[in-house]
Amino acid sequence: MRVTVGNRSYEGRAIDLTGSDVPAAAVVRAIGDGDVPIDMDVNVDVDCPEPGTVHEHVGHVPPATFDRRAALVAAARALGHESPSRPALDEARSKLADLSPPPVDVAAARRRVAETGETEERLQERVAELRGRLQARRKTGADTTAVEAQLDEAVSRLSAAETERIAAEQALERAEAAARGARDRREHRLELEDRVANLEREVRADLVSTVWERFRTALRAVPGTATAGETPGTYDGDEETAALAVARIAPLDAPVVVDGLDRIAGAEEVASTLRAPIIYIG
Amino acid sequence: MLLVVTYSRDARTTLRNVRRTHDATVVRELGRAALFEETELGAFLALRLREKHGDDVQIERTRPLNEFAAVPESIREAAAAYEDRETPSTPYAKFAAGTDYPDPGEMADRDL
């Protein structure tokens, strides 16, 4: 690996940048996609192999955030392990991806039923009111021609509204029946989603188990006080120690940036402890 | 009551959160479904779920079944008699055959 800071070059498996004033974040970026943001105002270039997925977890120690489980899963994969549940997971995922449930489009039909129902009700009231008025006029012997005409019109509108409401209700029934089929598909998708989630858990647990003993042994080799129980997942200690142990067990081609970790004495020492190329920043 | 059924993991999670914050309105939780109180708040919570998760939320309006008002006596009697049968392994169709008890196919075709 070769690191260039400004016009100085460093070469080797353990490079010490103490005193060069390069921020660790800039070095991490230079290892990753190689683009150091201009606002960092440093000229740093790292010529090294492409970082793998374990690097996302232990590429920078101490890590800003550390998901121990995910880091162990990445380490297990980097070591060539895979869970026996993996094919089932892939299959469930691809089935899920192929499943696009049709929409459940019932809202428009519901709205139409509500609206036609309201119209019908309003017209029923109007007819009743006109009938009352007509009766009252007949009693007093007043002229009924105008009211009769109004009533005739209201009755015919009511009959049309009733027809419309019945049609709307039938349309809603059909839409509900179609929705049932769409919901069956959605239910099936939910089952698949649950299956994928369960298999993902299984795969992670398997992978953590495969490297757990190595991880426990590594914890004793790296600086820091942490203990892990025999049962995979039982860990008592800080994130830095766990990150160092994961870095030790994983095959790392790209360098780990170690920055401001008091318990580490120097680049050479940490390179041999982690069995990885190191860029050490004081 | 309002029956709210969810059809995705996200919708199910939101439903559980609603239950946690509104346990007075969420009368009962049944896995990925729940019964909400039939109040404006119940409707609001149900509609909010549907706004968020669209077709992955189904809302139905339910009411208790009054079997004495809605179910013919013959059906009620058949249910009681079948539960009281002597041989527990007898399926209903066989139990009803040759008796006055209603045939399952006929019952399936008749709406309440």
Task: Give the quaternary arrangement of the chains.
Answer: heterodimer
Structural class of chain B: alpha+beta
Overall morphology of chain B: elongated
Portion of residues within helices of chain A:
55-70%
Helix-strand topology string of chain A: EEEHEHEHHHHEEHEHE
Q: Which secondary-structure class do the elements of chain A indicate? A: alpha/beta
Structural summary, described in words:
The complex is a heterodimer of chains A (282) and B (112). Chain A has 282 residues and is an alpha/beta fold. Chain A contains 8 helices and 9 strands. Chain A has 2 domains: 160 residues; 95 residues. Helix content of chain A is 59%, strand content 10%. Chain A is elongated and about 115 Å long. The mean pLDDT of chain A is 92. Chain B has 2 domains: 60 residues; 39 residues, no CATH class. Helix content of chain B is 47%, strand content 17%. Chain B has a 4-stranded antiparallel beta sheet with strand order 2-3-1-4, with helices on one face. The relative contact order of chain B is 0.15. The chains are: A alpha/beta (282), B alpha+beta (112). The interface between A and B is small, with 13 and 9 residues.
